[in-house]
Write a structure and sequence with these properties.
Layout lengths: L5 H64 L4 H4 L23 E10 L2 E10 L16 E4 L2 E4 L11 E13 L7 H4 L15 E12 L3 E11 L5
Antiparallel strand pairs: 1-2, 1-5, 3-4, 5-6, 6-7
Length: about 230
């Protein structure tokens, strides 16, 4: 009685095909998984970029609100961090102003309008100290909007986000460029920092995020009351 080997060759062929198909499917799964992770990482970075851009615009709005509400002394008051608050001394001299350090942003509503104001300054975001120690800069989603939720841990559907405005330097514009020490404004030392003389404030809007990936986005800009020579 003879046994045909054709059947056995067919089984081996089927096993080889199964292995090849399995390897191919596994490769497709790996590619799709990595692709989804990349899409999610890209999405988080885009969200962070938009959040940073929003705060850039908020700083410009604060400057513009100060200049509009105080048109008579706009060159003195454009640096106020809260355009809705006035202290006792005229020309905004005793009001809190932009300076170096990190600020959190607040949305303020009054007279049926929404305004932005900064709170701070504080030390920079540093997640190596833990999330709770950076909660001053937390962002939360409330009714579909992203808002500061200071002293709380961040809560969003996209991950954990922290946002700050970094005040860098304030420069006097009417000081010769060779006198760098005198160009940098320190409110208590340099003449001209308290008045309406031409000045330039440099700042950055920074967002740090944690989720499928960890990263940060930073956009920088300038506001000024410089009107010419």
């Amino acid at each position: 009685m003879k046994f045909s080997t054709k059947r056995w060759f067919t089984i081996w062929e089927i096993l080889v095909v199964i292995v090849v198909i399995s390897v191919g499917l596994l490769s497709v799964v790996v590619v799709l998984t990595n692709g989804m992770k990349y899409v999610q990482k890209t999405r988080q970075k885009i969200v962070a970029l938009n959040l940073a851009r929003e705060w850039m615009e908020a700083v410009y709005q604060i400057r513009d609100t100060n200049r509009t509400r105080r048109a008579g002394v706009k060159d003195w008051c454009w640096l106020k961090i809260n355009p809705l608050v006035d202290e006792w001394v005229e020309r905004c001299i005793d009001d809190a102003r932009f300076t170096s350090g990190a600020y959190a942003l607040q949305r303020l509503a009054t007279w049926g309008q929404e305004y932005f104001a900064l709170t701070g300054p504080r030390t920079w975001i540093d997640l190596s100290y833990g999330l709770q120690n950076n909660s001053w800069f937390s962002l939360c989603q409330q009714s579909g909007y992203w808002n500061s939720c200071m002293w709380q841990l961040p809560t969003t559907s996209e991950g954990k986000y922290f946002r700050e405005i970094e005040g860098l330097w304030l420069y006097l514009k009417n000081v010769p460029t060779t006198w760098w020490v005198l160009k940098i404004c320190t409110w208590w030392m340099v003449p001209g920092c308290w008045d309406g003389s031409p000045k330039e404030f440099r700042f950055c809007s920074k967002v740090v995020y944690i989720g499928d990936s960890t990263g940060e986005v930073k956009l920088c800009g300038v506001i000024t009351n410089f009107k010419g020579k």
